TrEMBL record:
Organism: Nocardioides vastitatis
UniProt keywords, alphabetically: ATP-binding, Magnesium, Metal-binding, Nucleotide-binding, Nucleotidyltransferase, Toxin-antitoxin system, Transferase
Keyword Endoplasmic reticulum listed: no
Annotated Polymerase nucleotidyl transferase domain residues: 77-156
Pfam families: NTP_transf_2
Family label: Belongs to the MntA antitoxin family.
Protein name (Swiss-Prot/TrEMBL): Nucleotidyltransferase domain-containing protein
Cofactor(s) in the UniProt record: Mg(2+)
InterPro entries: Lambda_DNA-bd_dom_sf, NT_sf, Polymerase_NTP_transf_dom, Type-VII_TA_antitoxin, WH-like_DNA-bd_sf
Record flagged with keyword Magnesium: yes
Amino acid sequence: MELLADYLGARHDEDVARLRRVLALRAMVATGMSQREIATALGISQPAVSQQLRTASDLSSVHPEKLIEAAAPVLRRLAEDAGYGRLAVFGSVARRQAGQESDIDLLVEAPEGTSSFEFIRFKQLLERVLGRQIDLVESGGLKPRLDDDIRREAVLL
């Protein structure tokens, strides 16, 4: 049975890697790269980029836990590039209790002086990449007790 577990683990890893590639493509598009620029950078044709984006246009069927597992490196890079720190997931996804329809709750440290408009733009960027709405909470932006509860269960990406 250990060999079966090894096989299933490898299949899971393949699925996550395939999903991560799609999320990276979506992130490149969401940050303003054209399909032609992406194709040139990756050494593939523009139609190949277009095909990959089309086949992954709907991520709603992807379980939230798997989506976050695959997206973590991409989301960390986007946060870092935008000056945000310590991106974490909390709620049912962090507790590994998420259902197919569960929402995704993220906690982030915003750069000092971030306006509400900039914060909303960053949230929208993450939503475009993930293909679904998220709840994005600024660390320290809630009532102290609630903030403490969220920080306690948060899992860094």
